[in-house]
Amino acid sequence: MVMYNRITAAAYRLLNQNKHSSFKIAHQRQLSPNFSRYNRSSSTSLAGFRHHCATVNLNQFHASYRWDLQKLSLVQFQNLSLIHHRSFGSVASTVVQRNPMFSTINSDDLIYFEKILGVKKVIQDHEELQTANTDWMHKYKGSSKLMLQPENATELSQILEYCNSRRLAVVPQGGNTGLVGGSVPVFDEIIINTRRMNSIIFFDKVSGVLVCEAGCILENLISFLDKEGFIMPLDLGAKGSCQIGGNISTNAGGLRLVRYGSLHGTVLGLEVVLANGSVIDMLGTLRKDNTGYDLKHLFIGSEGSLAIITKVSILTSPKLSSVNIAFLACQDYISCQKLLFQAKRRLGEILSAFEFLDAQAMNLVLHHLDGARNPLPSAIYNFYVLIETTGSNESNDKEKLEAFLVHAMESSLVSDGALAQDYSQATSFWHIREGIPEALMKAGAVYKYDLSLPVEKMYDLVEEMRIRLGAAANVVGYGHLGDGNLHLNVSAPQYDDAILAQIEPFVYEWTSRHRGSISAEHGLGLMKAEKIYYSKSSETVQLMASIKKILDPNGILNPYKVIPSSLVS
Ligand code: FAD
Ligand code: MLT
Ligand code: ZN
Question: Which ligand is nearest to the CA of 262?
């Protein structure tokens, strides 16, 4: 282990017995049988509390999930039909017609692909295709008969040039963890999977610039950088499967955006292959380059509709030695907001995550997620906030965090809290937050919305949705509060059109009325392609369609996604 991380070792539990009097530690508890005990102090200030130091590997910090799609139950292939109806969440209203301009694959096509790629990279195996045709949520199912796995941009270029000339539609696929139906075919599009493009090309320790292929799994990059003393500027629950090319194509946000910013800031360069097979080298490694239009930004967040990303240059950050994670309980949403306000001021540059979940999310996790333990088990609180700090000066960071927590307790913003004392506790805190999507999946049907909203308004939507749905469904709110990103999820035993009709278009209209975005970080995919007007003007959408027409005149790249079909077919 080359690098290590120190975290505050004293796990504590804070009970604010007397709201406006000075803060007391009234009681302490072991968070798990394995956690080490700490000195008991019946009435002491937090600053006087004893802390230990634990040495942990930052790489072990997060619970990581490998979404093994092979293990998920397999779906029946659908017959290829012109009209494709779906019967669940948000897609019930989406009726997509197969573009008749597209060809279907024939034996000559297969011969060509085998000639340029070799048989191993031309996949027709039924089981592999079933997996690749199905998204992570098991909500979107295509009926592709072919998956290609090019190993480099040259092979991909030959594939796309051929597909374009034959008008064979394709869907780019990375780790297939996308949540809006963007990564799987709608009909019989050829799946182009990037998993074989998985080399790290270059890493510069001085600048922190990493250049790699698009198919590198995010967690592998995190591990690689850990050994070099660096971290990726993004992290998300799907890190064990998602690929950096998929992350950039969706402009993924994740758990640390509040600190490291969006991929539009950290991606320095890209290599992409256009629909006609042209390889475009924009693989700069400079932080500053004002020589005309910065075209790489077009491809960040374009969800495979403009090109396929093959190489990536990204700015990584030095790994800092002091990481602290607090899991706090708040009685109401206004306290969460005030806590965020205070955290930005009092923790400032060391704040690296500010996540929240409500009681409904916590309940789901505790019921459905293996290994989930409530760090604050004496009660179910209305809201929970996970705050992470990352800095380089352990005593300074600790002091700052403690002062912040004391203030939060004294001003009654926080009702209860625990601070991780070692990596196992840190992991168990993150497990709760990162495990919400899995818990929701296990609970049954889930209608998933990913919204950018003003923080002060955000939770009103959850409450209004609860009133609309009554006992018909469980409305759950969680997300990246520090970024103004709400994940509104409606959980029900099974998909039901009556529930969907209560949710949509209400959720989009509400978001639009509050000048929010109907996609904060997951993208539009198939789910929201036709809903784009809730967040973009018709002129903007028209301009997007014109750009798509220039780069992909035959519309073969990820059809039916992102842009309304009427504008591109
Ligand atoms: P895929 O799902 O394979 O593809 C996503 C889209 O990108 C598709 O439209 C696909 O066509 C396109 N694409 C993929 N690779 C390429 C390429 N090389 N070139 C061009 N287009 C390409 N998202 C967040 O933003 N924040 C989160 O915190 C977050 N947490 C998640 C947690 C879980 C448990 C899960 C299951 C998902 C989560 N997601 C999150 C959503 C998802 O993981 C991200 O969108 C991720 O970036 C997708 O990467 P992927 O490699 O799986 O892409
Ligand atoms: C998350 O923040 O957990 C992800 O975006 C996934 C989700 O919203 O379910
Ligand atoms: Zn998210």
Answer: 1
